[in-house]
């Protein structure tokens, strides 16, 4: 029997540092029937490259240094406590992608899964550290060679490995969905998922038909909002369609093996064949 597909609504940093917006993203995720809503947790002083820290960027708060911008949109313990409580009241689990060891330590207090994003799966020390501090580790494979994926898998033995392409938005011809079939064969002891950054939903539906048991899509209140991830995110109506489509596909996928008649088809058979 196939496992129920776990659906992650990736709020990421689309909250733009606003707890109010983050709560709206939690509302959307819970209402649509997602299993998880995911944020991103990083320590900007560690994660922002030295050559970018002082670069000036246009932001909704005016021109500021990139490091200052990253700090402004980062949630601390007070915000995470509030959002975890809010998500719990809404009946949805919340977790985060972790970008550094202090972020692993920070998220450990809340339990639940942790994810290592594509940019960091070559940081094997971080991957091992996350593995040691969570019962459910997820990795994505974007921008990586097969050798890099192999090295990460050997280093941290994740519970879920997700196919993704790290371009935002991803051109359909660059998605290469059949890699999911490859991963299912190569990593049979690990659940395989798909994290999409493309426009539209059809390729995400196809990933489920190919055997993905975890699906992740970025979400937003409005794609016209400010932020680098907004344009390739799914809006509320799209998220509802995504979840319903996946659940319909799950119902439709049964039937592997010799063909037999069932349900309403038996009535049609009797009316046309007499038996």
Q: Please, could you describe this protein's structure?
A:
- The chain is an alpha/beta fold and 275 residues long.
- The protein has a single domain, classed as TIM Barrel (Alpha-Beta Barrel).
- Helices cover 40% and strands 18% of the residues.
- The protein contains 11 helices and 10 strands.
- The protein has helices spanning 19-32, 44-47, 66-72, 77-90, 101-108, 124-132, 146-156, 179-186, 202-209, 236-252, 264-273; strands spanning 6-12, 36-41, 56-59, 62-65, 93-98, 114-116, 137-140, 160-164, 191-196, 214-218.
- It has an 8-stranded parallel β-barrel, surrounded by 6 helices.
- Helix 1 (19-32) packs parallel to helix 10, helix 6 (124-132) packs parallel to helix 7 and helix 9 (202-209) packs parallel to helix 10 (236-252).
- The longest helix has 17 residues, at 236-252.
- The CATH topology turns out to be TIM Barrel
Low-confidence stretches: none
In percent, how much strand structure appears in the residues?
15-25%
Terminal residue distance: 30 Å
**Rg calc:** 20 Å
- Name of the level-1 CATH class: Alpha Beta
Strand order of the largest sheet: 1-2-5-6-7-8-9-10
Average per-residue pLDDT, rounded, comes to 95
- Supply the CATH architecture: Alpha-Beta Barrel
| Overall 3D form | globular
Name of the CATH superfamily: Aldolase class I
Task: State the domain count.
Answer: 1
Can you give me a brief rundown of this structure?
With 275 residues, the protein is an alpha/beta fold.
């Amino acid at each position: 029997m196939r496992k129920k597909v776990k659906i992650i609504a990736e709020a990421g940093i689309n909250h733009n540092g606003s707890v109010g917006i983050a709560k709206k993203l939690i509302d959307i995720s819970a209402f649509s029937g997602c299993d998880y809503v995911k944020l991103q947790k990083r320590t900007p002083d560690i994660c922002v490259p030295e050559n970018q820290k002082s670069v000036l960027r246009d932001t909704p708060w005016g021109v500021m240094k990139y490091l200052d911008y990253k700090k402004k949109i980062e949630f601390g313990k007070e915000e995470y406590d509030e959002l975890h409580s809010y998500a719990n009241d809404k009946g949805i689990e919340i977790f985060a992608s972790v970008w550094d060891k202090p972020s692993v330590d920070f998220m450990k207090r809340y339990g639940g899964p942790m994810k290592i994003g594509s940019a960091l799966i070559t940081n094997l020390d971080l991957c091992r550290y996350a593995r040691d501090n969570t019962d459910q580790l997820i990795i994505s494979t974007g921008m990586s060679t097969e050798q890099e994926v192999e090295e990460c898998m050997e280093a941290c033995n994740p519970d879920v490995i997700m196919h993704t392409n790290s371009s935002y938005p991803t051109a359909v011809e660059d998605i290469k969905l059949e890699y999911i079939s490859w991963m299912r064969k190569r990593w049979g002891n690990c659940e395989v998922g798909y994290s999409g950054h493309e426009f539209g939903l059809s390729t995400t539906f196809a990933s489920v038909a190919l055997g993905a048991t975890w699906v992740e899509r970025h979400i937003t209140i409005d794609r016209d909002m400010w932020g680098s991830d907004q344009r390739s995110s799914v809006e509320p109506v799209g998220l509802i369609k995504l979840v319903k489509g996946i659940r319909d596909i799950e119902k439709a996928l049964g039937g592997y093996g010799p063909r037999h008649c069932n349900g309403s088809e038996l009535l049609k058979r009797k009316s046309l064949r007499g038996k």
